[in-house]
Structures
1.
Amino acid sequence: MTETYARTTSAWRNWAGTVTARPARTESPASVDELADVLRRAHADGLKVKPVGSGHSFTAAAATDGVLIRPDLLTGIRDIDRAAMTVTVEAGTPLKRLNTALAREGLSLTNMGDIMEQTIAGATSTGTHGTGRDSASISAQIRALELVTADGTVMVCSAEENPEVFAAARVGIGALGVITAVTLAVEPIFLLTAREEPMGFDRVTTDFDQLVAENEHFEFYWFPHTGNCNTKRNNRSAGPAAPPGRVSSWIDDELLSNGVFQVACSLGRAVPATIPSIARLSSRALSARTYTDIPFKVFTSPRRVRFVEMEYAVPRELAVTVLRELKAMVERSPLKISFPVEVRTAPADDMALSTASGRDSAYIAVHLYKGTPHRSYFTAVERIMTAHAGRPHWGKIHTRDAAYLSEVYPRFGEFTALRDRLDPDRLFGNDYLRRVLGD
């Protein structure tokens, strides 16, 4: 076979700058056959293999000193099946390209996260999600996937074909093989009306159950050192479309959410004592707005301010309890927190290592500006989350190991047994997987 794929030896760094790796070589196969050949060569050379997407994970899930696989040449839509209402997409396709292409075809995903820089395989493998009363993560929208295993076998997995692999590989953390294509459920494109509104912390937490029940998609941000929140409710609309005006959109989404926020974060990092005052000013500056647009323009927004993040999923019924404990911890500590706390929800799903596996979940995410010491804050947050059987997002900072995770995931043993079968020699292993899955 002619070798057409690129091979380099440059260093790799993730988006947040929290992880750096120096692989022995980096390869960009242009086909499934070439990928299988890369895996066989790596095994023969005694090298580990890790695929990497856009680097938006904060953990070392993709780090390796062996062979790093970039999916840059495995992109694009393979097939649209309008009878089945599915789209099959190459694993390296960025979500922003997928969303744009689907919109041109009059189609959309049902739900998505709040950014779209990730590749489809990277996003689904780490359990990327948005918020939804009835609709779950992107991984839950997968109807089939193509996986190349350690011995170079190309395996197609769905609820009907290799169902035990399908149950695990939709959120596989790169431990079972290299995903080369994903088939997703889609639906005719629709409109969402977004209603953004400031609201007090006490009111949000008191009315949380009602706000979740009454809205298809509800989320909010709490500003530490204040009692202020910003809420967002997204619901389907008959139209007409009424997107934000170009000027107002630029002011809200670029100038305030990125430009001014960047300056505020930089000031807060340099002079932490200013953070509470900045938080009070910025949270009070928020105003209500309502707009209607196609889904990806409502669900997602640009995130240009770089940060580090920890996120835990807790049982949905414990959300308010956990949030109140988090707020009390911040108020009694000397911590100065410049980033809002993000709260979302998801219904239970059936994937072995999904953070919503078997239980309705609430997601609580904490962030700090890049370069700000985060250990004290994240340690205190993690202590609260783990006291309530919290499950850490696979792509975000946490310190949990296999002993803990096996207690909060009822199907953890099912996943690790499948890993033993598909990758007994740990071709896809690295230090992160050794910690979270054991060896």
2.
Amino acid sequence: MTIRHVVTWKLASEDAAERGAQAAEIARRLNALDGVVPQIASISAGANMLYADANWDVTLVADFDSIEALEQYQVHPAHVEAGAYIKSVVASRVAVDFEV
């Protein structure tokens, strides 16, 4: 069983350039978890590149071999550190976890 973890964030800043920089930083921090958090089977994060007025700002897609692996990822210190930055700039978050 593979669990796909998809998270999308809308950032709080009113300034489009600042949101873009923050979204790029979020993507950089999340992609840097590859090879650091052993439970990650695959990970891809990216900043939105089109329709900034309508789209959300940044998305993560990560795969895990089990629910337990996803839960271990959630509490891994490197993920917690990335999450602290994300929480400092985010306005809204949506997530879906599903089996693929």
